[in-house]
Amino acid sequence: xxxxxxxxxxxxxxxxxxxxxxxxxxxxxxxxxxxxxRGIVLPRSETSDEKHIVLKLATGYNVGIKxxxxxxxIEHGKRVANYKIPEKKFPYHPNKPNxxxxxxxxxIASRLDYRSGAVIPAFSPGELYxxxxxxxxxxxxxxxxxxxVFSENMGPEQYIALAKRIGDEIRNGVDGIVIGHGTxxxxxxxxxxxxxxxxxxxxxxxxxxxxxxxxxxxxxxxNLINAVKAAAESDIAExxxxxxxxxxxxxxxxxxxxxxRKMHSSYRSTFRTIGDIPLGQIDTTRIDCFRDDYNRRRxxxxxxxLPTFDEKVTILYYYPNMMPDIVDAMxxxxxxxxxxxxxxxxxxxxxxxPALKRAVDQGVHVYMTVQTLWGYVQMYVYETxxxxxxxxxxPAANMLPEVxxxxxxxxxxxTTDREEVxxxxxxxICDEITQREPYNGYLVFQGxxxxxxxxxxxxxx
Amino acid sequence: MQQTCKPFEEMSADDYAAIGLRSGLEVHRQxxxxxxxxxxxxxxxxxxxxDAEVLRHMRPTLSEFGEYDGTALMEKKTKKNIHYRxxxxxxxxxxxxDTPPFAPSEEALDIATELALLLRLNMVDELHIARxxxxxxxxxxxxxxxxxxxxxxxxxxxxxxxxxVQLGLEEDSCREVSDIGHDRVYLTDRLGTPLIEVVxxxxxxxxxxxxxxxxIIRNLCRSTRKVRTGYGAARQDVNVSVEGGTRIxxxxxxxxxxxxxxxxxEARRQRSLLHIRxxxxxxxxxxxxxxxxxxxxxxxxxxxxxxxxRDAIANGQRVRCVVLAGFAxxxxxxxxxxTNFAKEFADRVRVIACLTRLPNLVxxxxxxxxxxxxxxxxxxxxxxxxxxxALVLVWGSEGDTVCACEEIAIRAREATIGIPCDxxxxxxDGTNGFERVLPGAERMYPDTDxxxxxxxxxxxTSIQSQLPEYVWDREKRYREIGLTExxxxxxxxxxxxxxxxxxxxxxxxxxxxxxxxxxxxFKHWRRSRLPLNAISNEDALSVFTAMADGRLPREGVAMxxxxxxxxxxxxxxxxxxxxxILEKLIEDSxxxxxxxxxxxxxxxxxxxxxxxxxxxxxxxxMGQLMNSLRGRFSGTQLSNMLSSVLAETTAKESETSVQx
Lengths: 461, 660
Known about the structure:
Chain A has 461 residues and is α/β, with parallel strands linked by helices. Chain A has helices at 2-5, 11-19, 125-131, 156-172, 186-196, 220-233, 325-332, 353-361, 383-390, 401-412, 418-426, 450-458, and strands spanning 26-32, 36-41, 52-56, 62-66, 70-78, 98-103, 109-113, 118-122, 140-145, 176-180, 197-198, 204-207, 239-244, 252-256, 260-262, 271-273, 280-282, 287-289, 304-305, 313-317, 337-342, 365-370, 394-395.
């Protein structure tokens, strides 16, 4: 089949390969106007240009040769890459807890996809045991690949199916659930699952990695080991996110699904609990809880699954001089819920008032959160705040904007009755709104300050 | 005992030919760029100060072809905690792998291209960044980003060609601070500095040839003036094999002068290991028949007087014994200078089992140096061994001693096969020690963080048109104009070579005069921290021209430069120009009439002085004269004139004394 022979190649590159009757995985000697190159023809990434042919040299390096400078190609044979993570049967022990790992697309053990240039996750228990054998110390593992999507492509369909599968597994009697997830929207999924799966008797632990598992310094293995340990052994029967605490390989933090947020585009220690303290920390030797106000593990199999979601909800991130037509456009397009990320204590400019009034009058549910992320909405402090409330905008306390978005979507999937929606929104289910903010719930250190430097120097982050 | 190689000093080219020595080089050289290769941190700033530390562990990952790399698996066994010291002035979040790479430094790409063209490589059209795995922790990501610019070139050496396999552009690694037990500490300042790697074919046949070729490549790199110099800016890896042996890589040789002895010792080690294999075969020990067993013997040696072991036991550690059946006597077999076969085991135990405090093992071939005879006897009995076997004892934590004994067994098995594929470290005494298992092509992995980069014809043609002259051509040219060998080797590396070339070629300045000023004097002034970069090439040439035209005496050349530099150093903002100083000196230059008058006066003033002999007097008077005439009149001519004046006066004096 020519298509697999010239995998990923187009135009000039494809023409040259075909001209000399060679293809991907051919071991070739290529003569060009530049000189001679010997190597194996590799597939080409579909996003790369059409002009070059990629060779893997004997030294392991890859090089690109301009196709139109090729004068001759001699084929010496073929060497097809047989990428396989060494599989070993995952051991079963009757005394170990049973954990189910759902895959949605995060990379825990992965391999390269030449055509997209990205990594593809490998996932079976055997493969996982082959690459992270430590998992067998904690549990008997079952895996199920639900999706293979990047986390930005997760949506209502996936949330609902995931919630239902969690319900099934709980009723099937597993002792813990781990969900492998891309990190970008892990906190969105964690929030929505906190609402859709209530009163769980077991831990539901979300995990991912900031460095893909094809890198020796990846955080994937440590995150996964700790997540599996938390699912198998911890007493916290809630939706959790288990990710690196510091950037150093030391421990993971267990975050409550409704208070966690990805705070750095690339750091390992990107997940932080906002406006509160994390639930605890975990490493291979221990689980330390920082608080005791969490739902305890139970032996019963009761769980409430509420898989509802209204897609016509949006977040409006306020900026100075925002024009009212933005709000009008949302209403016109049929949006039923708007979560505003307002400035300071929860403000927007005056020109928006009439538009917000029109929105509320037309039945749109409008909630106010803060773009400062930390702190509560407090709309009584300034007169402007009071005015905005008079328009029908509901302050959402210290709910994070993304969490409020997920909760409103979920609530509107159940009812559109204004008072009922408001009741659902403002009744905390799992600390999405907290009664008090502890002083150590807001700690963003500033470098260069002497005492901070002293701390960082002494303690590996 | 059979001598497998003559001593270093006695080895001839024929001897090396007889053992089939083949050697190649990998030359690493930092490029002189303002920033690092894949981030915008400043390059070339070194300091052991640090603000913070990061801790990492490395796990082996699969290669592109679905295989694990042997080195990676070895490093996994060591279970090292790797501590990185970081300072905000030299490192950003990229270096410790918390930020993806930025586009590579354009300057680095240009310099690497220039070097690739100088090495006559077949240029690659599109660069693919690869990740070369390093699980020793020397790079926090666990891999080095690296790419190939060209393959298959050559350089001339004597009457033949030395093949250049490839030129790579890569990021430099961390500097190791310490490696004790399970903790390894690195400084990150050097990490990410652009570096080229030039790989030669194994075309060298004697240790001296390896050093010679290293020198040629060094000179070629430095002839671009775009590479870093100084200790650590260049490091060589040397590949060595002998007939029947294996390609062994000796890493990180900082000085070329150390290469020959290292190559000799490795050749000798390989010969010895082959010899040991033959002896084992004669004893009937092969890979299949080899037997090694180990057990905890802490109880047996509990009352030992051997300090390292006694202290270990006192600290609650364990002692473990491994029996190498049929190995008796072999552990004392010499492998390199001052080194024997036992070190092959001790190295593995140190590196892989992390028993880093030396000595880390004792064995029954040197029984009397450690335990008492009765202890050995009990050990032989308990381990069911006899006089044909060798016992090796290690001490440490339970886990480490088990790992150590397993490694010893692995190394013993390798001895029955031949020479294990190691990467070895260069030691100061010219020998080498085990560093890690030689990594293969399996450790290369495409970097998914950066797209391929088209090098571009415009870049290549523009760099091609401005290539510096080949060093070997310059060398020939300098030899032809009569410079001596030691001056030539200095000129080749001198930043002032361009001035020297123009001065001698365009303005007919005597090469030696220009060389002495530009090499020796300039070097001296640089060391005295005079602001040499205040002298432009044109200014420098104008001084040499004045001398070549006969307007300035030879001694004046250095004087002009020196006066200018001293003035500029004293007052960096002064607008004093070199041209002004030159003109003044030319104006001041004395004609013969002035000089004669001066001479007469100096001689007259000294008339009352007594001198032991005429030479002393001549020297004293020359000194006096040069105070006022230095740079204004030719010293040689002045000395001749003084001689004749002195001759005259002496003649007069003797007349007078006769009359008296």
